[in-house]
Amino acid sequence: MALSTGRAAGTASDPAAGGDARGRRHRGERGRLRGSLHRHWYAWAMVTPVLVVMAVLIGWPLARGVYLSLTDATEANIGRTIGVNVIPSSYEFVGLDNYLEILTSDVFWDKLLWTVVWTVVCVGFHYGIGLGLAMMLNRELRFRSLYRVLLILPWAVPAFVAAFVWRYLYNSDYGVINGMLRAVGLSGVGWLDDPTTAKLAVIAVNVWIGVPFMMIAVLGGLQSIPKELYEAAEVDGATPWQRFAQITLPGLRQVSSTVILLGTIWTFNMFPIIFLVTRGGPGSETEILVTYAFREAFTGVRDYSGSAAWGVIILGLLVVLALAYRRTLRRQGEIW
């Protein structure tokens, strides 16, 4: 009887015991946090300004953009001050209407298709040409340092300067390219007047700008591969292709995965090349998602809510791409 009474008392006290355990655990966690802050206060002190700046420059605009994307804000109904007159905003919350309008329009899917083609082609050329040049510069070569400097120059030139130079080169009447064609008896080409040639033109400019970064990154990866592996493979009778496939590519896997992801994100959002070389034309044939979002916000009757929705969709696409890419690498054992 006493035993059963003791069990009943123990059972009745279990909730209190569980609460005490949770309380001790909570106090322990707070103690560890205070200890970490006390021991590493200098690290937190140095990180805090960066976090504050990121919150101000990235967090607040992002939150504001997400909010605007859920409204019908335009230039006509947003609050503004004209002289001494203060006009209050009159836009309203519309929920997901902007997203539904964008995702059900042919314009979005056309721009998305061209953006994907633009990104895949450019990044493919970036990596392929960059790998070839890196392998060439990784060998003993006369004037190798000079070649490296010359090949890095396109990357050192600001993007807007390169865009204006290439726009002049593509000029139908006075451009250097058409001048060279006429010098050999060929007719000039309206590079920026036809949708096909305009797309090829902006791809060429972006490839010219992006190859040096890939080359430098891959060259660093090549120099980290032990030369003993190549020497052993050569002694075993491996062909150059076998050495490339079995040693070079696996040795570059981590570097390649990182630079390809970075190149994809940069190219997907490569605003200056498209906007400055072709202005998105002819018509809007060469506009990618980010340039179209810009036009929505800053041309005509400025559609702030629509451009914000475009921006949120672009961000979502890049986040999904990055997560899927990282998941693929994780499955392959390449965790970074």
From TrEMBL:
The chain crosses the membrane at residues 41-63, 112-137, 149-170, 200-222, 259-277, 308-325. It is found in: Cell membrane. Residues 1-29 are annotated as: Disordered. InterPro entries: MetI-like, MetI-like_sf, UgpAE/MalFG_permease. Keywords: Cell membrane, Membrane, Transmembrane, Transmembrane helix, Transport. It holds the Pfam family BPD_transp_1. The keyword Coiled coil does not apply. It comes from the Bacteria. One of its GO terms (biological process) is transmembrane transport. Gene3D superfamilies: MetI-like. One of its GO terms (cellular component) is plasma membrane. Residues 112-325 form the ABC transmembrane type-1 domain. The keyword Zinc-finger does not apply. It is a multi-pass membrane protein. Belongs to the binding-protein-dependent transport system permease family. This is ABC transporter permease.
